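hey can u run this one w/ 9MR bound, need the structure tokens asap thx
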Amino acid sequence: MKRITSLLVIAPTVAALWGAVGCGPAPQPETDVPTPTSLKDAADLRFLVGAAVSDAVPSGQARADSLLVIDQFDTITDENVLKWEVVHPEPGTYDFEPGDRYVAFGEANGMFIVGHTLVWHSQTPRWVFQNEAGEPKTRDELLALMEEHISTVVGHFKGRVHGWDVVNEALAEDGSLRDSPWRRIIGDDFIEKAFEIANAADPDAELYYNDYSLANAPKAEGAARLVLGLIESGHRVDGIGEQGHYKMDWPAPARLDSAIITLASVGRPVMITELDIDLLPARSRDRGADVGLRGDMSEGLDPYAAGLPDSMQQALSDRYVELFRVFMDRSDMVDRVTFWGITDSTSWLNYWPIFGRTSYPLLFGRGGEPKKAYHDLMDVMAR
Ligand code: 9MR
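ok here u go:
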């Protein structure tokens, strides 16, 4: 499944059709199909391939990163600029400047533009949930504010942002609803309200539910239940995003495969929305991407500050290849694979859950150079 078509597939498709209608050996294309030189072309018609971009990309501060994004990816997600604290920092005050830059960058480069995110418990200012006296808002007050926020933000970008992460991270690890201020104040129906308002603000934008650790069975089942419930009660949900903040040993490919099947069982595409692989030693048994977690640096927790040895480059590459084999096998269910960042140097994993480590979670190294994992994925996808 992929919405942006690539000219590279025309020759093989003609050849396949020729064979299928029984016309004998297929005619050879006049020219050889060129070897893909980008992730987006290598992924071909299987799925979109994207990157999360910080404001440094559209603002021109990170020229080399911008060129990489233009060259390699056909979809972008904003890493921060459309989050509540940036776009709506004070009551009645909206700042669309960085968001406008982000969307203009995507448009100038013909990309599928994702808006991240409308309703989340994190990066949302305290005033959202409290009245002027510092007391919790009432259900009606918070619902009215949610309506104002979603209709203003989605309305501002109507027809230009192609898909929204409407609700982010509403589930707990056991698949039940997470205890968040949205839920405490509005009630469980805050999710359906968010989808209703987003649908009214831009009926043509795709609307997604997005969360982390959906590779784990209880949470995948919880997300499927949640989204199916929304669909059955007449709400429009166009896809489920599994963030994909993975480790070297989690999730196992078979587990990920089962989770994709569970998520896709609701009849909507699955998207891998924030892919990276954390190969640094774990602070604890914690999995997932809870931004509230923090740890202290201690000996042995930053082992590759001087560089990543070849053996680890190879291990990272093997891990990426095994995950992409799952995405490729399930490309009838997986619509998009977006990396959470561009190069290792700016990944959030340099400062989470421990500040100041040297992380290597992406396909491009600190100088923007393609890593072994990049080359190996290109080979696997081109086959
Ligand atoms: O990558 C984002 C980082 O720059 C922010 O400081 C952080 C703050 O919450 O959010 C990061 O992005 C998160 C995303 O919005 C939701 N899923 C987890 C991501 C990594 O924390």
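The chain has a mean pLDDT of 92. anyway lmk if its weird
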